[in-house]
Write a structure and sequence with these properties.
The complex is a heterotrimer of chains A (604), B (155) and C (129). Chain A contains 16 helices and 27 strands. Chain A is an alpha+beta fold and 604 residues long. Classes of the chains: A alpha+beta (604), B mainly alpha (155), C alpha+beta (129). At the A-B interface, helix 11 and strand 19 of A face helix 1 and helix 2 of B. The complex binds FE2/S2 (inorganic) cluster.
Chain lengths: 604, 155, 129
Amino acid sequence: MERIIGIDLGTTNSLAATVIEDGPEVVAPSGENPITPSVLTRSSGNWIVGEAAVAQRLTAPEQTVYSVKRLMGRDVEELAEEIKELPYAVIPAQRKLVKVRIGTEEFTPQELSAEILREVKRRAETALDETVSKAVITVPAYFDDAQRQATRAAAKLAGLEVVRILNEPTAAAIAYGLDERKDGYVAVYDLGGGTFDLSLLKLSGKLFKVIATHGDTRLGGDDFDRELMTLLRERLLAEHPEVTFERAETQQRLRKTAEEIKIRLSGSPETAYTLELPECGIMPQGLVTQAEFEERIAPLIERTLASCRKALGAAGLTAEQMDEVVLVGGSTVVPGVRKAVERFFGRKPHVAIDPYKVVAIGAGIQGHLLAGGRRDFLLLDVIPLALGIETLGGTFSKLITANTTIPAEVAEMFTTNVDNQTAIDVNIYQGERELVEDCRNLGRFKLRGIPPMPAGLPLVEVAFRVDANGLLIVSAKEQRSGTAAEIEVIPSHGLTQSEIDHILEESFDHAISDFNARQLIEFGQTAARMFRGIEQCWTVAEATLSTEERQELRTQMDVVRSSMQGGDAAALKRQIDALGELTRPLADTAMGRAVLEELQIAAG
Amino acid sequence: MDLDLLEERYQQLTVELHPDFYANASKRQQQQSELASTVLNRAYNTLRNPVARANDLLPRLAQGAALDERQLPSGFLMEMFGLQESLDELLESGIPEEIAQTRTDLTERHATLISGLALHFAEAEATAPPSTLQTLQTDLNAERYLHRLLERFPV
Amino acid sequence: MAYSEKVVDHYSAPRNVGSFMKNDDAVGTGLVGAPECGDVMKLQIKVENDQIVDAKFKTFGCGSAIASSSLATEWVKGKTLDEAMTIRNTEIVEELSLPPVKIHCSVLAEDAIKAAIADYKSRSAASAD
Ligand code: FES
């Protein structure tokens, strides 16, 4: 049975989970934090992803990319607000794509997400000690087709086969449902770093059925940070009207302080802060109370509750009918959010499963099921937004309505306007509004190969199918002649197949040097840790090792150091291993072991 | 229509057919399961919705007998047109209480019509007099106009 | 779907929207509905000496229905009642290049013309008595 891991590809954090003998677990190399921050930084032509990149947000803001999920499947116009606040450059690209520009290089959001996925994959592989090539990847339930396609493209670029695109709240519901095994209605309130979803499910026996979902793909904890940043900025300007916020650095310091305040306010009613702004030569201090913070974010929370009302309305249910409310996503640890949710549903929310991990765990379980590992539950999901076509006067005509259980299919007839016309253009949209201009254009479908006939005579049946991933597939057949009309999908926001292939080809060329570069960085970190460990237990070394042995150790340390300057990762690894060998007698003593274990050095 | 039984059967079938359980099967089996699930979902949605169910059922009951698909209760069209016109004004005026009231009234009327369908069907299945079938058809015709009116209210 | 410019034009700037006094003897009113979708349309003609001198409509329905009725009012103007009776929905479909799913919307317009003429005739017959 080939393993299918679950990956929660988040706006701020990403992580992987899978089912091992003891059950579902998040996976990470032993002793390491399972969470990979969704941050990546470009340094001399290579990517550094995760924890190591986080610090670069302050020191190299223009080269450090975060919140890339917000860019997925969206265009410059839609992103106008976001772009203003991002320290890195986002530029328009072909069709409706955007790219991130770093120095002279340009990257699509798909490529950037692929780097994050690659890192998550790599860490999972290290932890499991096997290669991973298949995954269930989660997306916000309210992601539209373009955003789902973009996610799939990213995975492909990262060398992962996406067996299923799974909605985040649904993934959480799987984890919850299997944990509790209670029948009834469950509301999953999922507030992440950049997106919000509310899904209503009915659990009955082994069936977990989504009945309605609603959300906002541009609302999350990032917005809470932004509110705090505004507060800090206001206060700062009151005292120091001369300060400007043009510098990316200043912005990032504000952001970092805001994030810290937010985190501390989850645990205490008020918190003091110091805003370090060396570039402005000031260091203002202050105090933020939970009440102040809650007042600021109240309108944002209200937006989430409006989504809750819409989903309940669509399902014909009331808040009181919910048997359980499950909180998911890092932003639900904010006390103001919990209070609001409790008030709205009139019950204490369920928080037994870690809101940071529950989505990945659910995805890991679903992966296990898809791999054939279990058959004890089945998840039925819905399409979040109606799918349809443009009809007269720019009106949107829905073919598949929101909250339809997937897989689903609807067929529609088309014909020609002109004699001997052999192709028809159909514009596909997704959304809930009346006019196409308020919906997302997913692409143009060109029906070709219609046999020449007088106008109006050909009858082309176009089938719009939404598969179990929530992805749209279109096929067509001309009824009179029986020929299958060809359909070419021209995605408005996504990458075409040939573009994906091209990037893959290029990245293959880079793969070897990228791999070497990443290894160099990692081995360098390992070596630094070892040096620290050896220095710390040098007294032990003096007691246990002979003078020659100590000398040998010192020499080997120098060899490692000079090897770190070179460009050969494999050579560095060999020298590090040799050094590890020499520290073995140290590790055999109690004190040495304690120090080395503390520093997570795999001695020997 | 026993909705509980429908639910139960749907659950049984969907567990048998769903693509999730065929992710490792051959391409052909995967496609078949995807197709079967799609058909199942469509059938379930038709059966669960009383109007869709009635629209599906009526031609079968009529067995080819011609029913007048345009017939409406007398004066109905006039009334609908009047309602559409006054709804124009009402929605423009934006008085929430009045809008809500009109909506409640129409929703009730719509619901009454739909619950009436079930009774007529019971009758039609037992004896199948053509007149009952036509009554059903007329009601179903009228339902669309009411439905259209209800669609105009903002969510 | 590429709609012809004519449809878009009739849809975005429909001609002859409005009403005549219903009980004017010179006016014939046709009120019809589309059972397919529940849309309703009212089309009125003003007649002088068997000739249609003016027409107005009001449609609660889709864009194609609005465009069809707009076109129908333009076409009937200046025609005699008999000539107007010969207007077919297929001509509307052709003129506006309506897709198959929208054929019934043009049927609505044809029916409305017929209903308006019938209404006018029955009224004038009644007033002649
Ligand atoms: S859809 Fe109702 S008249 Fe066109």
